């Protein structure tokens, strides 16, 4: 999810993209690209015959995205005030792209290049967003603090890609809009960029995990092709750890030679060829890819069977790989205001762009900012109160918690880690 600077990051990326359209090969001379209000552009350009060529982006409206507006409800506890979840704010950004020129045909040429480029760029790739925002560091006109904020806004890491679609404004709408802007009308193309997902990282309350929950499904029709039906982490755990042996169940699995783990959001794709106990109905493999090649999170697992020189993939099933807390403080002593910093070590490394938080009991706080993969994240808690007994300690990475329960005991019991607030 993005921070509040996600809107600004979209405008910065669009401005950078348009700057690359008007290269010397376009034959138009020097073209300036800006992202300010049209009345400011008009005042700066004046009315001279040799006015500078300029293309301007103006964000004239921000609306809620209809598909995302109800995602995450409810977000408050039964008391109506306890925050259980930071709801994502999904926004569509409505832009006006305006061309300014004082000579014949030039405004139309500027607009034509821009409209063609936007039409041919319906989706902005994540790597372009990262590269363009990093490139802003070389622009002395932009405050360094804003550049740092845009770089950590998380726009490239949100689950939705930024998509560009043309919009339609009627003659009356366009006339009303330019009248409100107090600027003279110029050739304009309206378009929409969506969707920007803004989610705050405020501290939350989170319930402890369920001790015993098992769901079984029995298919009634056997599929004719290799098919996966279930991925089973060891010891009845909901997620596997690095080094765990995972059991995959299905049908017609005799020819399976490898499994493929994919996480499209993080750009991770790893094949594991060492299979054991392979049979027609199941096989096993060990999650033994060393960090940071396989960070914690939810993966799509599929099996691969040879077919001539190529491989055929089966259907995909989710596999959660959990983080593990390897070292932690046995106790912490908050200051007079209840503030305390907790530092742990974990495996595998956590990556920038992942959603990382630490839970002491039911108190959850996000990780302090980090810019490179790390195995020693730190967390800042506020308003902690002393406890009479140690509280369970959990690391949550992309929604997957580190295990703290022995699920094979009867009944299940908490095993730690835990921490005392003194």
Structure explained in plain terms:
With 422 residues, the chain is α+β, with helices and mostly antiparallel strands. It has 3 domains: 6-200, Phage tail protein-like (STM4215-like, 2-Layer Sandwich); 227-321, Immunoglobulins (Immunoglobulin-like, Sandwich); 324-421, Immunoglobulin-like (Sandwich). 16% of the residues lie in helices and 34% in strands. The protein has 6 helices and 28 strands. The strands form 7 sheets. Strands 7, 18, 21, 22, 24, 25 and 28 form a 7-stranded mixed β-sheet that branches. Strands 1-2-3-6-5-4 form a 6-stranded mixed β-sheet. Helix 1 (6-19) crosses helix 4.
Spatial gap, N to C terminus: 35 Å
* Total number of distinct structural domains: 3
CATH topology of the largest domain: STM4215-like
Give the integer mean of the pLDDT values. 88
- The secondary-structure class comes to alpha+beta
Structural topology:
Layout: H1 6-19, E1 31-34, H2 38-45, E2 53-64, E3 89-100, H3 106-120, E4 123-124, H4 126-135, H5 144-151, E5 162-166, H6 171-181, E6 188-198, E7 204-205, E8 227-232, E9 245-251, E10 258-263, E11 268-272, E12 275-276, E13 282-286, E14 297-307, E15 310-313, E16 317-321, E17 324-327, E18 331-332, E19 340-343, E20 345-347, E21 356-360, E22 363-366, E23 378-381, E24 391-397, E25 400-401, E26 405-406, E27 413-414, E28 418-421
Parallel strand pairs: 1-2, 18-28
Antiparallel strand pairs: 2-3, 3-6, 4-5, 5-6, 7-22, 8-9, 9-13, 10-11, 10-14, 12-13, 14-15, 14-16, 17-20, 19-23, 21-22, 21-24, 24-25, 24-28, 26-27
Helix pairs in contact: 1-4
């Amino acid at each position: 999810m993005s921070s509040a600077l996600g809107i600004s990051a979209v405008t910065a990326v669009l401005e950078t993209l348009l700057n690359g359209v008007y290269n010397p090969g376009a034959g138009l001379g020097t073209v300036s690209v800006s992202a300010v209000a049209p009345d400011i552009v008009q005042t700066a350009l004046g009315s001279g015959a040799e006015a500078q060529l300029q293309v301007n982006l103006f964000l004239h409206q921000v609306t809620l995205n209809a598909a995302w507006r109800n995602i995450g409800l409810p977000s408050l506890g039964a008391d109506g005030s306890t925050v259980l979840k930071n709801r994502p704010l999904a926004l569509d950004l409505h832009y006006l792209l305006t061309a300014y020129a004082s000579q014949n045909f030039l405004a139309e040429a500027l607009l034509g290049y821009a409209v063609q480029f936007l039409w041919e760029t319906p989706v902005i790739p994540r790597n372009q967003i990262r590269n363009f925002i990093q490139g802003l560091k070389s622009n002395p006109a932009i405050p360094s603090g804003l550049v740092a904020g845009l770089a950590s806004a998380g726009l490239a890491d949100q689950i939705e890609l930024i998509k560009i679609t043309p919009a339609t404004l009627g003659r009356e709408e366009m006339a009303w809009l330019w009248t409100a802007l107090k600027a003279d009308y110029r050739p304009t193309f309206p378009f929409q960029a969506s969707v920007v997902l803004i989610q705050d990282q405020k501290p939350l309350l989170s319930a402890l995990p369920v001790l015993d929950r098992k769901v079984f499904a029995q298919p009634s029709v056997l599929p004719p092709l290799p098919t996966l039906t279930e991925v089973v982490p060891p010891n009845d755990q909901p997620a596997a750890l690095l080094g765990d042996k995972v059991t995959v169940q299905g049908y017609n699995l005799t020819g399976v030679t490898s499994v493929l783990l994919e996480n499209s959001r993080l750009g991770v794709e790893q094949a594991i060829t060492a299979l054991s106990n392979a049979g027609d109905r199941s096989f096993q493999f060990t999650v033994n890819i060393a960090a940071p090649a396989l960070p914690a999170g939810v993966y799509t697992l599929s099996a691969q069977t040879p077919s001539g020189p190529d491989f055929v993939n089966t259907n995909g099933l989710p596999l959660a790989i959990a983080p593990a807390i390897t070292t932690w403080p046995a106790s912490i002593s908050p200051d007079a205001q209840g503030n305390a910093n907790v530092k742990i070590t974990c495996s595998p490394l956590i990556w920038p762009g992942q959603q990382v938080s630490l839970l002491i009991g039911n108190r959850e706080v996000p990780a302090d900012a980090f810019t490179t993969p790390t195995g020693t994240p730190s967390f800042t808690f506020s308003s902690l109160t002393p406890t009479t007994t140690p509280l369970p300690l959990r690391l949550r990475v992309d929604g997957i918690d580190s295990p703290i329960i022995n699920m094979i005991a009867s009944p299940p019991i908490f095993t730690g880690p835990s921490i005392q607030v003194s």
